[in-house]
């Protein structure tokens, strides 16, 4: 009995050893096939899932925010000038001015000529590119005539231009928002109110854009008010302050006074008719007294 029991135990022991070896060999595969820990799963899923959710949830159009104009606006300076030049010949000076304008890419905006007894005047309003303004002033000062007066001014409008640009950008953003609200308006009252807001914003935007265009024009093209002046020279025989002119004026004035006196006497003709009647009555009264 004992002899049979011992071989049986040996067989059971050998089978158990083989089974443990098989489990040891297959255990790494089992470990590797297990899912990763929960912490690693949370670490792998952050950005993509959030971005996908944000893309699916927020589908409404949003107005694009433009960069602040203050970051890109250059310095804005408006230059203006006034000059008065005495010349010997207006026509010759006008031709010289035309040549100078061509060299500096300038043009005449307005022109006014006035001829009086004492002088000739040619007034010009000239627009010239900003970069050629100083060269134009120097050309007029050197070769046209004698400068009687000159006044140059510079006005820095950068702050105003920046302020208007920022407000214009904000108004455009609000305008786009109101247009989006108008698409989703459900009642007639809301639509009317939103349309009124849109109209006000569009008017304000037009005014702001016009102001920016005006400033750009004044900055890009400077303005010069040029006056060409020629004094007329008179001889003593024909001048109003000479003896001949005074004698003629006196004779004319005396004749006018005499004519005025005669006309004044004639205007009293009703009283002149009474004089003969008074004389007749006086003589008759005197004759009757003598008798």
TrEMBL record:
Residues 184-218 form a coiled coil. The keyword Signal applies. The chain crosses the membrane at residues 258-282. Keywords: Coiled coil, Membrane, Signal, Transmembrane, Transmembrane helix. Residues 46-63 have a biased composition (Polar residues). PROSITE patterns: PROKAR_LIPOPROTEIN. It comes from the Bacteria. It comes from Chryseobacterium endalhagicum. Residues 1-19 form the signal peptide. Residues 76-282 form the DUF4349 domain. Residues 26-69 are annotated as: Disordered. It holds the Pfam family DUF4349. This is DUF4349 domain-containing protein.
């Amino acid at each position: 009995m004992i002899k049979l029991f011992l071989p049986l135990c040996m067989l059971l022991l050998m089978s158990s050893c083989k089974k443990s070896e098989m489990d040891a060999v297959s255990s790494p595969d089992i470990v590797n096939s297990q899912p990763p820990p929960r912490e690693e799963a949370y670490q792998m899923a952050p950005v993509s899932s959030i971005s996908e959710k944000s893309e699916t949830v927020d589908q409404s159009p949003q107005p694009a925010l433009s960069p602040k104009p203050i970051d890109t606006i250059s310095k804005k300076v408006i230059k203006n000038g006034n000059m008065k030049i005495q010349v010997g010949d207006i026509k010759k000076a006008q031709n010289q001015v035309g040549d100078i304008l061509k060299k500096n890419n300038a043009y005449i905006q307005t022109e006014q000529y006035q001829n009086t007894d004492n002088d000739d005047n040619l007034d010009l309003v000239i627009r010239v590119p900003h970069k050629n303004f100083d060269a134009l002033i120097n050309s007029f000062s050197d070769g046209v005539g004698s400068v009687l007066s000159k006044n140059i001014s510079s006005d820095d409008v950068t702050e105003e231009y920046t302020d208007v640009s920022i407000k214009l950008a904000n108004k455009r953003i609000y305008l786009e928002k109101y247009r989006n609200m108008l698409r989703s308006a459900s009642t007639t009252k809301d639509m009317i109110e939103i349309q009124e807001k849109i109209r006000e914003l569009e008017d304000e935007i037009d005014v702001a854009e016009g102001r920016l265009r005006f400033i750009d024009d004044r900055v890009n093209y400077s303005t010069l008010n040029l006056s060409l002046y020629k004094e007329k020279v008179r001889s003593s025989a024909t001048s109003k302050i000479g003896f001949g002119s005074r004698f003629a004026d006196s004779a004319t004035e005396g004749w006018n006074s005499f004519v005025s006196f005669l006309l004044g006497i004639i205007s009293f003709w009703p009283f002149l008719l009474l004089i003969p009647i008074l004389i007749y009555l006086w003589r008759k009264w005197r004759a009757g007294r003598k008798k």
